[in-house]
Fold this sequence. Notes:
alpha+beta; BirA Bifunctional Protein, domain 2; 41% helix; 2 domains; binds phenylalanine; 9 strands; 7-stranded mixed beta sheet
Amino acid sequence: MIQDQIAEMERRALAELQATSDLVALDEWRIKYLGKKGELTGFLRGMGGLSPVERPLVGQAVNTAKNILETAVAERTERLKSAALEVTLTRDKVDVTLPGRPVQVGHVHVITKVFREIIEAFTAMGFQVAEGPEVELDYYNFQQLNIPPGHPARSMHDTFYFSESVLLRTHTSPNQIRVMEKQKPPVRIIVPGKCYRSEATDATHEFMFMQFEGLAVDRDITLADLRGTLAAFARRMFGEERKVRFRCDYFPYVEPGVDLSIDCLICQGVGCRACKYSGWLEILGAGMVHPQVLRNVDIDPQKYSGFAFGMGPERIAMLKYSIDDIRQFYRNDLRFLRQFA
Ligand code: PHE
């Protein structure tokens, strides 16, 4: 009987279906039993040779089997799909409670830190910030600052020259001239920037370093203004209790010239290695702008006077943080730099 054959096929199909383990095998199963040329359709094709009595019975048996197999395959598909999903979910599991990887956050360089403090100290006193070129003319770096060719002061700076007239600035002082060429008094500026000297480097000398130039020109500016401004700066930077000392010094573009020292931060003035047992630490050079420098930029020294100063933020940072070697600043050793985070 065909009905028996159909029943046998159904049993076989269901057993095979239970054995399928993935969606590819399921597809093959579907083609084999339910496909256009599948076993089930095979029975329908054979129906031409049946008697009119048998035909509807066989047709019904085929339809019943078809329904059973379709329901079974739908169920099996669901089962395998959710099993596959389960596998991916377990494999790709993310534990959202795990702590994240720490992000490395940088911080400003210790010189930048000191740099900003110096700028704040002077802008609070009414100074403005200006800038000038690092590749400079001999004219601005020396000549206009009262340092003519052959002047012994030129040997004080071991200069990197590009040519006879072009060089890397050895100090920020050329900006005194550059500013006063453009701006007539009142002038109150500070000029930060890199400077270069052809130094054999050691613990206190670098061939590249920073400077801050300061310049104030107006009517009736006196040495007392210079003293007050720089003492206020030194105390803001190093503590209100600091003692300050001004002594004569020589720079061709100031008259009189001075240097400013503070009492030693480390030994409080008693004497130690840092202050070379003098009790004092020199922090900057300064003076009253030389009348010839004013004349060079067409400012009448009878009417106007001014003071100028120059300081190295590396030295300031060394004193502030007890750093004993200037070369540390630009060596980029993270163990050094991280101390100033
Ligand atoms: N330019 C001087 C130096 O490099 C410092 C200085 C600036 C001195 C201004 C006096 C006035 O040491």
